[in-house]
């Protein structure tokens, strides 16, 4: 298995907290985690107000309880999702299977894109209900800052989750390219189509050298020539 696939080091290495914190997707998860706390915390603490003559509290967003419930639910679930994927990011380098790493990255892409969509819906919903709120429902303007904070950080959360989806997609592309390379790569030494030099046995080479005879010296021809005498007729 390729231990360095999908943007992580080889499996089995020691956990480095400094390198973990400096990763871009880890930073975005921390930021998204904080934004989710601001959204649901603002609504829970100051998102319900009542008129002077009433004792029952209503949602500050146009007295629409669904708006407050949506903001709280999305904020709490996003908070838990950030914690879950932070734990997955910490454990990710220990995953030795390329298929398991691929599944984790694909789930990161899907979940991040899904939460970006939910935050977009939440921003539009809260903004619409806040604009439709009536002044007589909240004459003292209580919780106005909390409502605006929930809307603002819902808007910011859209971009942090889109950023997480984009970084996860980059990790997926990196892992897909490395996996494709590992499958298509062929060692040149194993390619049967390449020509090879003929194999020569050392013993055969020695025998060939031992049986080789040098040509006779030129003096031998001179001696034979000197021994031959021409006859005159």
TrEMBL record:
PROSITE patterns: MARVEL
Superkingdom, taxonomy of origin: Eukaryota
Residues of the MARVEL domain: 20-173
Family matches, as InterPro entries: Marvel, Synaptogyrin
Region (Disordered) residue spans: 192-233
Keywords: Membrane, Transmembrane, Transmembrane helix
GO CC terms: neuromuscular junction; synaptic vesicle membrane
Localisation: Membrane
Membrane topology, as annotated: Multi-pass membrane protein
Transmembrane segments: 27-44, 70-92, 104-126, 146-169
Start-end of Polar residues biased regions: 223-233
Pfam families hit by this protein: MARVEL
Family in the record: Belongs to the synaptogyrin family.
Protein name: Synaptogyrin
Taxon lineage: Eukaryota, Metazoa, Chordata, Craniata, Vertebrata
């Amino acid at each position: 298995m390729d231990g360095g696939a999908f943007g992580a080091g080889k499996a089995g290495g020691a956990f480095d907290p400094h390198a973990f914190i400096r990763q871009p997707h880890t930073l975005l998860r921390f930021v998204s985690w904080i934004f989710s706390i601001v959204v649901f915390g603002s609504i829970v603490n100051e998102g319900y107000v009542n008129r002077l003559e009433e004792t029952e509290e209503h949602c500050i967003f146009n007295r629409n309880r669904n708006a407050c419930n949506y903001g709280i639910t999305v904020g709490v679930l996003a908070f838990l999702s950030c914690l879950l994927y932070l734990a997955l990011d910490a454990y990710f380098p220990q995953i030795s299977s390329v298929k398991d790493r691929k599944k984790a990255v694909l789930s990161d892409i899907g979940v991040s894109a899904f939460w970006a969509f939910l935050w977009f819906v939440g921003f539009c919903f809260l903004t619409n209900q806040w604009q439709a709120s009536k002044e007589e429902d909240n004459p003292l303007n209580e919780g106005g800052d909390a409502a605006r904070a929930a809307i603002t950080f819902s808007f910011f959360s859209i971009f942090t989750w889109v950023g997480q989806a984009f970084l996860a997609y980059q990790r997926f592309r990196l892992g897909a390219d490395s996996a494709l390379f590992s499958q298509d790569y062929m060692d040149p030494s194993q390619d049967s189509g390449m020509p090879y030099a003929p194999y020569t046995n050392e013993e055969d080479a020695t025998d060939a050298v031992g049986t080789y005879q040098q040509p006779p010296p030129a003096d031998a021809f001179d001696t034979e020539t000197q021994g031959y005498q021409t006859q005159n007729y």
